[in-house]
Design goal:
alpha/beta, eight-stranded parallel sheet, 9 helices, 8 strands, about 15% strand
Length: about 280
């Protein structure tokens, strides 16, 4: 039986050094294929060389476009609570110029810091694919990178014919808030995307065994080029809404049990560019 190739992406690089450490550890264990950078994060600058080296070694590095998490040192932020972005997007009241400016600034900062364009684009709390907002993002990508290899873009649709996915209501909400229309939009462009998205849950598991149960359900449903997101850190991250969940994820993902689960389901982790 031929192995399927999936992607495992750690979000929120740059938010905290404990997150950065987890990303490097998992990548060099071959348990991670990508990481998404909060480019205004306080702990981006301290890890520039390490991330550049990991990128050379094959780690995909993307922009985690952020409109909901305020960083003190960032300038000209267009930060609003998540519920307000949902409301504005659903009512068609988005300010196109403000979003374009925020996206352009974050892309430019990413390129200036790392010296390369992002391999892909996604969004903190999935804002990049909300109704109306997604078109602004896609138009800007096409305008900015039309003469080069386009970054791929994360979509949030579950793989086809999924079954028995736990805590699936949050994934369904993402699809309703813009996921389906955003995927249709991506299909009208030359922008690559993942084939299915998994890893969505309420950040409410008690221990590694409970997280493993979720992962087993995702692995069963994974297809070639399916993207599974994660949010690891080597220890509890203070002042973070999901800070206590992060080491639970890390401990499982770095364990022998995770490799056993990948082998059981004939899955291997690799970057998106090599599997599309």
């Amino acid at each position: 039986m031929m192995k399927k190739t999936i992607q495992l992406c750690a979000d929120d690089f740059g938010q905290d050094p404990l997150i950065n450490e987890a990303v490097f550890s998992l990548f060099y264990q071959k348990r991670l294929s990508a990481t998404s950078v909060l480019i205004d994060g306080a702990h981006v600058s301290s890890s520039v060389l390490d991330l550049q080296n990991a990128h050379k070694d094959g780690l995909e590095v993307g922009l985690h476009f952020n409109l909901t998490l305020a960083f003190p040192q960032a300038i000209l932020q267009n930060i609003k609570p998540l519920y307000l972005w949902i409301l504005l997007s659903q009512l068609g009241l988005l300010n196109k110029l403000e979003i374009e400016q925020a996206f352009q600034l974050q892309l430019t900062k990413f390129e200036d810091i790392y010296g390369f364009m992002p391999d892909y684009i996604d969004g903190h709390q999935h804002v990049h694919q909300f109704s109306g907002l997604g078109k602004i993002i896609v138009d800007e990508i096409l305008k900015r990178y039309s003469s080069r290899s386009l970054p791929w873009v994360r979509n949030t649709l579950r793989p086809n014919n999924t079954r028995n996915i736990p805590q699936v209501s949050k994934a369904f909400i993402l699809e309703v808030l813009g996921g389906k229309s955003f995927y249709a939009l991506l299909n009208t462009t030359n922008i690559l995307s993942n084939t299915g998205f998994l890893g969505v849950y309420g950040f409410n598991v008690a221990n590694e065994a409970a997280y493993r149960e979720l992962m087993l359900a995702w692995l069963i449903n994974a297809q070639n080029n399916t993207l599974i997101m994660c949010h690891p850190a080597v220890k509890v991250v203070n002042d973070d809404a999901i800070g206590s969940q992060r080491p639970i994820e890390f401990n499982y993902l770095s364990s022998n049990a995770f490799q056993e689960d990948l082998d059981l389901h004939q899955l291997t982790i690799s970057k998106t560019r090599s599997s599309v």
